[in-house]
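for the writeup, i need someone to sanity check this before i put it in the appendix. the sequnce is what the collaborator sent (i think, or maybe the updated version? ugh). structure was predicted straight from it, no edits. if anything looks off just tell me and ill rerun, i have time this weekend
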Amino acid sequence: MAGSLLRRLLNRLDITNYRCYIPNLLGVEILIKITFGEFFKYFK
């Protein structure tokens, strides 16, 4: 389920924005880590 959701999200990415997207990967990764860090605090 998560795999298909991720695939659908990746399919929505515009290929023309590919070069603009790559430098933002690090920022996205940090944002995801912060978001999941906050998310998991509620389950501890």
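The first helix runs from residue 2 to 12. The CA atoms of residues 18 and 24 lie 10 Å apart.
thx in advance!!
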